[in-house]
Prior knowledge:
heterodimer, A: Rossmann fold, 24 helices, B: Glutaredoxin, 2 domains, 11% strand
Amino acid sequence: MYRNTVLICGGTGCHSNHSAEIYDKFVEEIAAKGIKEDVLLVKTGCFGLCAVGPVVIIYPEGAFYSTVSVSDVPELVSEHLIKGRLVERLIYKDKEVVTKALSETNFYKSQTRVALRNCGVINPEDIDEYIAYDGYQALIKVLTEMTPEEVIQTILDSGLRGRGGAGFPTGLKWRFCRNAQPDETGIKYVCCNADEGDPGAFMDRSILEGDPHAVIEAMAIAAYAIGASQGYIYVRAEYPIAVSRMRIAIGQAKEYGLLGKNILGLGFDFDLDIRLGSGAFVCGEETALMTSIEGKRGEPRPRPPFPANKGLFAKPTVLNNVETYANVAQIILKGPEWFASMGTEKSKGTKVFALGGKIVNTGLVEIPMGTTLRTVIEDIGGGIPNGKKFKAAQTGGPSGGCIPAQHMDVPIDFENLAAIGSIMGSGGLIVMDEDNCMVDIAKFFLLFTKDESCGKCTPCRIGTTRLLEYLDKITSGKGELSDLDEMEKLCYYIKDNALCGLGQTAPNPVLSTLRYFRDEYIAHIVDKKCPAGVCKALLSYEILDTCKGCTLCARNCPVNAISGAVKQVHKIDQSKCIKCGVCMDKCKFKAIVRK
Amino acid sequence: MARIKISKVPFAGTPEQEKALDAKLAELKLVPGGLMPALQFAQELYGYLPIEVQTKIAEALDVSLEEVFGVATFYSQFTLSPRGKYQVSVCMGTACYVKGAGDLVDALKVKLGIESGECTDDGKFSLIETRCIGCCGLAPVMTVNSNVYGKVTTNQLDGIMAEYK
């Protein structure tokens, strides 16, 4: 028995902030103090509250320590682990209130964790911990008590829809594939889409890093349901920790007889391989992903034939997203009614969102469908930092749209988000404040989709380039009012004619910002001003006569564009200035203005 | 689509590298869809994919060089020119972008005197803009080789770059 359990977050966010060194320091300190027998150290997956990482939680107290550094470890060991006193200085403070346990924080109170149930709870590199939390129970139940048809019916009844963004009913997908006639080889495949390409979305990464066995178990269940014996997980190469944990998990599952030939002696075979992406956003599209697994250029192909009939290597294939799979075992164990009791009429269960951008609690949250954006941003997210005003929330990444303040009380589900011009997407939720220019954001996404367009179909390849040219023209102060109508026309043309989801949704960021922030476009075109002060061609920095000559701005300028003697008014060389605004932020006398 | 930039630096593979590649290719020849893993392995081994290596892969896997080149230039993580000793990457995911990653790139271009995707003449630094690396809680994020720097501001750049002088 251990007296204390110390959980150290090993998610990518905390890992980048040296949580691995913190773990090593704990090992060293605990050994030095001779309490190795009393303390269990666990490196877990993501806790979700990445903003205050690295995070350490010590049980039985459940003390939630935030922004821990390596040098804090000796104090945590000698004070908390040896003397039993909380180190108050490091305890997380929720809006200035000292909050002892994780579950008491505003960040966690409104969440319901289904897909993330084990993230930050178990050691993802130890299959025994997953099994202790009912792991592989659902697979055993399916193999011993249920027919494939019953499994599919259970998933259908639960109302689970694809979490990758499009929201297609998962059970229906499985049924199509079960009913598909295989060729003479009889081969079918199960695939997992872990090519999380939406910038600002990291829920799939956290699930793979924090609970990899949940995905393996669900894929085995899907394989049983459709009659497949081989699966592939396609992971982005940008996620090295996720890949390594997945590899460990697959190895352990094979060792335990939960993957491979004749699983648990029940006559069911299922094997799993990992394939890595190599940085192509379009590979998140299902047909492109399969083409990439085949070792080719990841270009999409027309549908039909749908993957359920002719997918990977032209065999019937089921492809689901990581988060979708993470719900499956729970649905089998707790029943479809339990899952369907959460959410709205057409969108059941929960959804994980990655909160990022101008928000206090950046991190990962899981909420029941139907929660409002206001709850997510103000209560869970802790609002906008630095007293700034909320301008918009962007969902769905480059395929989605911007939701303005007037729609903050809309319950989040697939249908409602589509109705207000955005999409659910995979779950990235980026908050923007008054300092963000919406024309610039539209341009940012178009630059992304233009770069990532695979080039196979003309509407997407040429259309996104043309759209970007309009946006470039507007942000450099050369736009005309007629451009707005032309852009809109082009947007609908691309949507109607592009081959795959990438092109069909690429105009969404432009359309949604035109719909809600047309006044900003007009300000760029008519007044030649960027109201948020972002578009560099439309602004300049100048030093006023009130400059005291303190030299602070000159010393901080990253490109040495500021000159002037001590106690003399300084001057900015406009040809060198990159308009980063550091000088204005640094000036203590408000003597630098943006025009 | 990937920008194609072919290096003029002569290929300098070692016999050990060649042996490792041969062994991997023999294994991948039997794997359906083995071309991607082969390119990933070779890039890891050599740091980039010179034409000599592409030719070798094409021969070993019995696919045309055209197909190998097509795949190598389709994916942004494959590079046909060598990287600097220190690869400076700025995350240009949305969360980083709205928090000023673009300013970091602009400042780094000036400091290093190169455009993104290029390498300094002394082979020391290369600069790239990467897709979201998923540390959105630390935005804006930049990495130098495997060292990650979070919540970076332009006036911290001199300090960070000084670590690699």
